[in-house]
Amino acid sequence: MIQSTEHHYIVKDDEILSGEPIIKNSRTPVRAIVETWRMGVSPEEIHRGMPHLTLAQVFDALSYYSDHQSEINAYIERNQIPDKLLDPMTTNL
After folding, report:
1. How many CB atoms lie within 10 A of CB 43?
2. Count of the separate structural domains present in the chain
3. Is the residue at 89 inside a domain?
């Protein structure tokens, strides 16, 4: 079941990522946009790197994050790769 949110471009769909907030009409989770933004990538650059999203969708995802930080931070934490599974050669970059 698709559940709308107070944000125009953000929905939750039980059939996609177990109901994690995503961009409407995509499988892109809000957390992916937030993680990219946290790495210092501007919203305009995120849009260029994810051309299937509009700039408005990127900004709405960041706005959703601003309103629901604990929820999105929990999804980010839940989806991190454990350190023991990371290749030591890539963690020193």
Report:
1. 17
2. 1
3. no
- Cα 35 from Cα 30, distance rounded (Å): 9
Residue 27 has pLDDT above 70, yes or no: yes
CATH of the domain at 42: 1.10.10
| pLDDT per residue as tens digits for the range 51-81 | 999 999 999 999 999 999 999 999 999 988 7
Summarize pLDDT for 8-23 with one digit per residue, the tens: 999 999 999 999 999 9
Please check whether residue 38 lies inside any domain of the structure: yes
Angle at which helix 69-78 crosses helix 55-67, to 10 degrees, equals: 100
Q: Is residue 43 part of a domain?
A: yes
**Quick check: is 1 in a domain?**
no
d(CA 44, CA 41): 8
Token code pair at residue 71:
């929820």
Contact 23, 57 (CB under 8 A): yes
